[in-house]
Write a structure and sequence with these properties.
Helix 9 packs antiparallel against helix 10, helix 12 runs antiparallel to helix 13 and helix 26 runs parallel beside helix 27. About 60% of the residues lie in helices and about 10% in strands. The N terminus is likely disordered. The chain is globular and about 80 Å long. The chain has a 6-stranded mixed beta sheet with strand order 7-6-8-12-14-15, with helices on both faces. Strands 3-2-1-4-5 form a 5-stranded mixed beta sheet, with helices on both faces. It contains 32 helices and 15 strands. With about 750 residues, the protein is an alpha/beta fold. Among the domains are: about 120 residues, Nucleotidyltransferase, domain 5; about 190 residues, Rossmann fold.
Length: about 750
Amino acid sequence: MFRRCGLGLKFAPLFLMLCLMPVLSQANTLGEQAFKRGDFEAALDFWKTEGRKARDSGDQASYFKYLILQAESQRALGQYTAAQQALQFVLKRLDSKSPTTQHIAIQTTLADVLSQQAKNAKADVVIKTAVDNATLLGDKRLLAAALNTQATLFARQKQYTKAQPIYQKTADLAIALNDRQLATKANLNIARISSDNKDYKTAGSALTKALQTIDDLPASHDKAYMLINAARLASALSENVSSNSGGWLKTSFENLNKANTLANQIDDVRSASYALGYLGELYYKAQRYDESLRLTQQAIFKAQNANAPEILYRWQWQAGQALRDKNDITAAIDFYRRAVYTLKDIRADLNNSSRANNFRTSIGPIYFELADLLLRQKDSDPKKLESQLIEARETVEQLKAAELQDYFQDSCVTALQSKITGLDKVDAKTAVLYPILLEDRAELLLSLSTGIKQFTIPIKKSVMVKEIRRFRQRLEKRTTHQYLRHARKLYKWLITPMEATLTENNINTMVIVPDGALRTIPLSALHDGKKFLIEKYAIATTPGLALTDPKPLKRKNLSLLLNGLTEAVQDFPALPNVQNELDSISKLYKGRVLKDEKFILNSVTEELTEKPYRVVHIASHGQFVNDVRKSFLLTYDNKLTMDGLENIIGASKFRDEPIELLTLSACQTAAGDDRAALGLAGIAIKAGARSALASLWFINDQASSNLVSDFYKYIKGSDVSKARALQQAQMEMIDNRRYRHPSYWSPFLLIGNWL
């Protein structure tokens, strides 16, 4: 996969196994040849075939060796989950009484595979074991490989001061072993992390050492990649070192051309695609768009021949950028569409490999740049214009769905798509607001029963985000009204442009599909100078158009499972008002109450398995952070993770009728953490509920109990939607002088189905 051309050039310890094993068949040699020229699919096919033969014949030793080689190809292709499974399978079945070279090789590659999936704690343990074992055996070659991987793991976590001395130790060992290839890789890695750490002097020195040895290496796929990496580093230095920028730029061109020549000599189409594509990038940066397009088109052709979508989308994106800058918008849109289409089949792998970075930062620009181009088209034909607006919205939707999958590390979080009805099919008094924050402006797409309308706001994204952050910070300060200035400014930007349209259409409910920083604030607290937005419209939030099941709440025989903590447990404070909250709801609906020592995971699971509850209420501490594995709801005896929540609600045999409403009345999400807000936004989907009522920040106050109790009182009415019920409950708070400040009532969001 393309990450082989990024941070941390890898030394393939498993491929050393070819030197440690006899020639098992002609396919083994063919697999080795395919691997060395970068044809990893062919190598994988060869070794899978031979592996099956060895397994069927009962030759376990050969079967294990072929599984190991398969894993190396899978790693190279970015198939990290499959590689991990194969390596762990072999490790468990090897004699573990004492370490062997085979153990060390497997552990080294397994650590890298775990790291690629952001399983850093496990990766660190595995690589430390490999280093210790290699040291114990005195195998300097495997030790060098393990150290190189250990340094790369530190580098991926941006622990550069730990990574650099280990890379240097790798280089020293490689020189002692007369291994120029490994020494070159180690120096390239030192140059990479030094450049990332803005230590350009060290980066230049290490790159110079690497360049002195690359040309003497034998022709191979690895050599081609080293030339490409050297060129990329030289390009970065040319942009950051003014004293020799021209020299480094020349070095970049020279090495990319060398890589392309070498790749063609050994029939390595992957490397050729990278070399041509990065050459195209150099010309693009120089604003020589015709040369850039010519080279990028060649790179696209090579990527297609290599069946490498993980490379292909990059060059399609690059071609789109060049055409956009040439002002050939129609052709640019075509290439952007191709890039987005190519990404569909590989987004899950890119999610895995992007977690250590940021999925939105690395992949998101493709979607936003395409949406930007589509939204700039002011077609005079109303039907074409509406089609362009819908396509722009659907383009951003794809990114949102991928982000949710990335956050929850679960490709099934969009499974409800099979049950959805498009949000465009709303009733006449409901409007769906879809804001898109672009670098130079904001676009508001408003869906009404009569069609979709576009409102362009000339406010830069950076300015909008800054205002959103200030609003959220001041909104939580209940002793001041500092929030009001920001509430008015955001109202003017986000609501005023379309207010006349809302009035003309007699809108009483707004469904908002927020993005990025907008996920971290309650739009209900925006203010026009006289009224809060919630006083004009009932408001619901949904993480995406394709992630909602808009069906009315079935109120007949509505049964609730009420869960809550009143006592202090696990270092969290007591919640004394939870008792009143549970009592007031119990008076309205039939159901079961699990409180304090009865609110344990086993009891909740048992209840949901045996009885058809349609509402699950949890009055307990909850925290949503940017790592889903650290997000939780507190029970009496444990912390309920998001996966755990999905499992216990999914345990219900009545799942064909999903939970109608999940209420979480004491949650908190850190201000300014857009990724953490993904967890709150997607909680209903993850839990398999049609909707959720949850809070952006925690209110340890009677106010929370009052609002939630009023919400349940209002939804008891047969003609009141959940959104309208929340609006009425919040307006009661506004009418109460004690609780009028929005810090009390605005953090509660209705997420998902608002009916």
